[in-house]
């Protein structure tokens, strides 16, 4: 078998330069990412203690600077928002790709969805505050923040899931239909499981958007830091997430240990996002196998 391939015979200096340039850009991206994560973890991990993550927070008491309420509020917002947005987003994507007649209306919906995904989150926050907090009389609460974030992440879930469904070969669906399976069974049993990696990507992107959001939640969920006193009572009260707590503590950099608390909160936030992504992958694999 010849050792020299056709690519090696026709390799040109421009190709080599382009390859080096691509590798250099990828290397710079990795170095910058590792540098940011390393800087946050090096400065934040030393301040992460059991007391830091398991005690409440108080602006008046210097001995109570824990982040347990913020961790609970973050989990509330992530879970409730996903429970609202993921079924709606996946159902919308299935309808647009499998049921709707491909025409001007579907193209308009897709264009509108892409426009919504590029709108600044502070506009969603203003909309959520006006509609959910004032018009629906939910006040500044975790539930209002969840509804606002559901609107924020819906475009991402719909468009990513839609592209994943469209990438499934049509021969899979045609073969199942030819064997006598119903359309709904084909979609739920063949098309959707094949598109599950794309759905997983949509969920991971949504989790990252929720956890990292601050502007929209500042208007809707507020900056309360009280410990939960029951599920339904808590979601109807103001509650800051880890991101909002990081923002608030970073603003108070003149107070003692404020930056240490901010870096510790940032490190916990990174670890929480990593764990949520791992959990999402495990659940998706279990659903796919089932």
Automatic annotation (TrEMBL):
InterPro entries: MetI-like, MetI-like_sf, Phosphate_PstA. It is a multi-pass membrane protein. Residues 71-280 form the ABC transmembrane type-1 domain. It is found in: Cell membrane. The chain crosses the membrane at residues 20-42, 67-90, 111-132, 186-211, 261-279. Belongs to the binding-protein-dependent transport system permease family. CysTW subfamily. NCBIfam families: 3a0107s02c (TIGR00974). This is Phosphate transport system permease protein PstA. The gene is pstA.
